[in-house]
Amino acid sequence: MNSGLILYVPGVVLVTALVIKLPTLRRGEHAPLMRSVCAMLLVACVVLFLAAPPSISAVNDLTGITNFSAPLVYCVLTAFSGSCIVLVINWRGGPPERVRRASMLCISAYGVVTVFLAVLFVLGEAPVERLRDLDTYYASTPFIREMIVLYLLAHTVGSVVLTVLCWRWLRQIAGALRTGLALIVLGGLLDIGYLTTKFAAVFARWSGRDWDYLSTHVAPPLASAAALMVGAGFIFPLMGQRASSTWRTYRQYRLLCPLWLELQGSSPSWAAAMKIAWWAPVELRKSHREAAIHDGLLSIAPYFSSTVRIAAFDAAIFQGIVRERAAVVAEAAMIAAACRVHASVHPSKAPPTEQHGAPRLEYTGDSDSMVSLSRSLGSPVVAAARRHASMTEGARHE
Predict the structure, then answer these.
(1) What CA dihedral angle connects 286, 292, 295 and 299, to 10 degrees?
(2) Phi/psi at 171 (nearest 5 deg)?
(3) Which of 1, 184, 223, 340 is 20 to 30 A removed from 285 (C-alpha atoms)?
(4) Domain residues of the chain, as ranges?
């Protein structure tokens, strides 16, 4: 059963990855790249499950044909090689017509190879069931020999093309895609190691030597590791981009907290903002927080003071802060001061307005700008503006 686990375990991992990606496929059912990813994962899962000795025995018993699993596994493995190349073709992109033509050429070529594998098995004779060493046991049997060599050659071409294309592309890109390509290259090298052991064992049989252990004991772990690496390589960029986007959103959500707390109580929407569940998607929590911030800013807008902003800007420049950063600090100081004035005003009292209207905010147009504004609230310049506003309002009410 250990020989079965070597292939079943990575098979379960790839099934899990396929289940994760299926919703994406449903949402974008016409995306060639996503279809290629799911097709490759599906074929890889089938290969790993069918190639395990317990599955080979079960398929042979079910069909009643001795060694029927051999051409079945070889055909599915050939389909996997073709699906990997098709996926790389779609992954690299280019003019749609050229991508479609290259994909169809690859599918046609590997389809022909699959038909030949089935025909060669029918023409040959393999009366003795072999669960683990069919490649070497029938290495010299007419037609079965050709079937074995053909599947190894087809798989070699697919593996080498995949590895070389990804290696060339690896040097041109960065980020999560580069990591994915590196995993595919590693998987391709492991797969080439698997093919090398298979070829060595078959060639040894032809020359009268017994290197069957290479095919029986060394090749399966290499195939298992290769499938995991290649599968992970195709999945990682897609999952990595999602994880990177989620982390960026979460980081912005947390960095907006100072601004959100500064405006706390300034708008009736705060009660609703506090009710959102902590387990809600971070995108929803961030949108909710930004909405509450905008509502709060709208409530305190009548208390914005150009005088406070100019004084804070001058103080920031005096402290050696560059002009772009000083403008953000000045706006944060104006917001902090307005929050203090707003908190001290009786609800029944009409808010004051400047002669030329309330100043406009310049750093609330997008999430990044709001984050910069929020981080600036910790500046000594903002703290000074906050204290000055509190003291002024306190003296006015005495």
Answers:
(1) -140
(2) -80, 0
(3) 340
(4) 2-248, 256-396
CB atoms within 10 A of CB 322: 9
Q: Which amino acid, one-letter code, is at 50?
A: L
Summarised one tens digit per residue, pLDDT across range 231-285 is 778 777 767 667 777 888 889 999 999 998 888 866 555 545 456 766 778 888 8
- Per residue in 294-333, pLDDT (tens digit) is 888 888 888 888 899 999 999 999 988 999 999 999 999 9
User: What are the angstrom distances between the C-alpha of 275 and each of 208, 259, 375?
Assistant: 77, 18, 24
Average pLDDT over residues 117-146: 90
Quick check: 162 and 226 in contact, CB under 8 A? no
CA separation, residue 337 to residues 6, 40, 258, 267, 334 (Å): 66, 59, 14, 16, 5
Per-residue model confidence (pLDDT) at position 19: 73
Nearest to 222 by CA among 238, 203, 199: 199
**What token pair was written down for 284?**
């929803």
